[in-house]
Amino acid sequence: MLQPVIKWSGSKRKSAEFITSFIPKTGTYFEPFLGGGSILGALGNRPGYAGDQIPELIGIWDLVKSDPSFLANSYEKSWNGLQREGHTYYYKVRDRFNKKRNPEDLLFLSRTCVNGLIRFNTYGDFNNSLHHTRPGIHPETLRSILLEWSKIVSKTKFAATDYENLLKKAKLGDIVYMDPPYMGNKGRYKNEQFDFERLWQILDDLNKRKVKWILSLDGKSGDRDYSKALSAPKELSKDAYLLDGESSAFPRLLNSRLDNVTESLFLNFKIK
Ligand SMILES: C[S@@+](CC[C@H](N)C(=O)[O-])C[C@H]1O[C@@H](n2cnc3c(N)ncnc32)[C@H](O)[C@@H]1O
Fold first, then answer.
1. Closest by alpha carbon to 7, among 56, 48, 57, 55?
2. Domains in the chain, please, with CATH?
3. Is 81 a pocket residue for ligand 1 (Cβ < 6 Å)?
4. What is the pLDDT of residue 185?
5. Helix 55-66 crosses helix 139-152 at what angle (to 10 degrees)?
6. Are 33 and 178 in contact (CB under 8 A)?
7. Where does the pLDDT of residue 258 fall: very low under 50, low under 70, confident under 90, or very high at 90 and above?
8. Which numbered atom of ligand 1 lies nearest the CA of 33?
9. Tens digits of residue pLDDT in 192-243
């Protein structure tokens, strides 16, 4: 299995095989909520566009594509510094990243911080701490991961942009995979930061433009509000699957119970 360049919260690594089985083999591929890119990676080398609103993350992806050796060498240098000087080195790199925002520092931080989780505070500063009990992935291991990914993303154009903007280029025959942020918990329909109403409008627009799309929605609900949350994508799509928290299977969304849903997948086309 392909190892990730960076760990990303809400990564689709575990369901990547299932999700990619729905992605048509032809057409330009669009992935506007890229994060750690687990679906892009599982899909393999294919022409397309990938975007995210975090510029430093896209900076990492651009370097994975154009200069993986630079990223690998930079990581090796920082990793050696960390083994030599300990936690002061980590915090030096963190301060430098928060001033200069260079992607290679973000990669190092993500590989040595607590649980590998990239986390920014309200001022946009990276604020996760060093994972004291682990040395961070070995530079040679990361080098081979970066070189492998570099081939996989060689036909992808990356953009640090809002998803609506990236999707303007999509046309008939293309395919879009969308994995927006978590839908919120306790059945709350709207996530404070992410405007799902705007997403529903964009899905409607893609339908009118006859662009194929697949949408992942994550959330957990102990009450019935979640079914309300899913009613808009259900109406806009032609097929849907639910991952039920206990069985880890993806049954088709027909009369399934909605009270234990953690992950769902909507398609505006039918496979069979
Ligand atoms: C659930 S994560 C994607 C995870 C990814 N599928 C993976 O496997 O790693 C959602 C991503 O959407 C990005 N995002 C949130 N709002 C966005 C927006 N308006 N435009 C573009 N990207 C956005 C976040 O920065 C985050 O990386």
1. 57
2. 16-55+162-267 (3.40.50.150), 61-150 (1.10.1020.10)
3. no
4. 47
5. 90
6. yes
7. low
8. 12
9. 578 999 999 999 999 999 999 999 998 765 544 566 678 889 899 999 887 7
Cα–Cα distance measured from residue 128 to residue 212, given in angstroms and rounded to the nearest whole number: 38
Determine the residue type at 108.
F
How much is the pTM? 0.91
Distance of alpha carbon 233 from alpha carbon 207, whole angstroms:
12
pLDDT at 99: 97
Substitution candidate for ligand 1 out of 3, 34, 191 with most atoms within 8 A of CB: 34
Count of C-beta atoms within a 10 Å radius of residue 116: 20
Which contiguous run of DSSP H or E holds residue 192? none
- Span 55-84, pLDDT tens digits: 999 999 999 999 999 999 999 999 999 999
Distance 193 CA to ligand 1 centre (A): 12
Q: Is 33 in the pocket of ligand 1 (CB under 6 A)?
A: yes
User: Is the CB of residue 156 less than 8 Å from the CB of residue 40?
Assistant: yes
CA 263 – CA 92 distance, rounded (Å): 39
| 266 φ, ψ (degrees, to nearest 5) | -115, 140
Task: Report the atom number in ligand 1 closest to the C-alpha of 164.
Answer: 20
